[in-house]
Design a protein that fits this description.
The protein is mainly beta. Helices cover 7% and strands 65% of the residues. It contains two helices and 18 strands. The strands form two sheets. The chain has a 16-stranded antiparallel β-sheet that branches. A two-stranded antiparallel sheet has the order 10-11. A hairpin with a 4-residue loop joins strand 10 and strand 11. About 6% of the residues have low confidence.
Length: 336
């Protein structure tokens, strides 16, 4: 860049920051901007359901993925007069995320018989949360305000259960008497199994439960309200929202399935999720706030299609639900 261009840019910079425009926009109550680093803990579960083909009211398979994650991220809030814009991004900091449990109802004569149950460590591969909301601050009094809001959240969850999980299999293919049994009965086969001689492999082997991968995209739209109350240095913010529309897209792969196909599931629905939260802020000084928060998300079971590969399977439905508590601490740095 030439010296002349540098001088021109310098004068433009000086003129702007000494102008009435800057004074009115950035040095007044018209525009505000803050950055909020946040550290939180999520405790909940994601459920993946496949229903029976003979009776779609009964479950055939249920996978439960614990979501016990430490999260870190940042929230950016800006406002123009009473109109506020919030943007937040978080990602997981740990790998171990509780347990993954797999239940199956595989009896062809009794759909209520839970024939298989296995459990093992749930490992986080990648987990992200991104959200954007807009709300308007309606002042009821000097201390209290009500804020109608709208927003959208995107979540990506990727987990896997490693080979070597424990379980009991009571369906006829595994039971000691070739009959269907409940998973906890004596006839059910225990995994990992004892070592045995395999003529095919010419060695002693030990059967183990295979690894399972799970990837899920979740999109929530939100409509709701915030209520703010200020007292001395404290600010209390209560939020309650429902989801007008939400969309799930997930895939899992059982590594022992043999055909190598990935199971895809898509569900969508309206008014099927609710979230609420409470944040308490301590206004340390005019540049810094300290906060703690508690949030709860509850999504009822959505039903949708199953795709083997990307071929729709018309005889079975899929289902998915989510539930999560989120606690956090943060510090708000007020730039303007």
């Amino acid at each position: 860049m030439s010296i002349l261009k540098t001088i021109k840019l310098y004068f433009i910079f000086v003129i702007f920051f000494s102008s009435a425009c800057y004074s009115q926009v950035f040095n007044s109550q018209l525009f505000k901007l803050s950055v909020e680093p946040e550290f939180s803990y999520a405790n909940g579960s994601l459920k993946e359901i496949i229903y029976q083909s003979g009776d779609k009211s009964k479950k055939r398979s249920l996978l439960e993925w614990d979501k016990k994650l430490w999260l870190y991220g940042v929230n950016i809030e800006s406002s123009v007069k009473n109109l506020h814009f919030d943007l937040g991004i978080q990602t997981a900091a740990n790998k171990f995320s509780g347990q993954m449990r797999d239940s199956d109802w595989l009896s062809k004569t009794d759909y209520s018989m839970k024939t298989s149950y296995s459990w093992g460590d749930n490992i986080s591969d990648q987990n992200y949360i991104a959200g954007f909301s807009i709300y308007y601050d309606l002042k009821i009094s000097r201390q209290f305000s009500i804020c109608p809001l709208a927003g959208i959240d995107y979540q990506y969850d990727s987990f896997y259960r490693e080979r070597g999980a424990k379980g009991r299999y009571g369906e006829a293919a595994y039971s000691s008497d070739m009959q269907d049994h409940w998973w906890y009965e004596e006839e059910a086969k225990v995994f990992p199994s004892e070592r045995y001689w395999s003529e095919e492999k010419g060695a002693y082997v030990r059967l183990q439960i295979a690894e399972i991968d799970y990837k899920k995209h979740s999109v929530y739209t939100w409509a709701g309200v915030k209520m703010k109350f200020e007292e001395d240095r404290f600010k209390f913010i209560l939020e309650a929202c429902f989801s007008p529309y939400l969309y799930f897209s997930a895939e899992d792969k059982h590594h022992d399935s043999g055909d190598g196909k990935i199971l895809h599931m898509i569900q969508e629905g309206c008014l099927a999720a609710f979230k609420t939260g409470l944040k308490v802020k301590y206004m340390f000084n005019k540049f810094l706030d300290l906060s703690c928060s508690l949030n709860y998300l509850d999504t009822k079971t959505l039903r949708g299609k199953i795709y083997y590969g990307w071929t729709a399977y018309p005889y079975q439905d899929s289902g998915a639900s989510a539930r999560e508590f989120l606690t956090g601490i943060s510090a708000t740095i007020k730039i303007f």
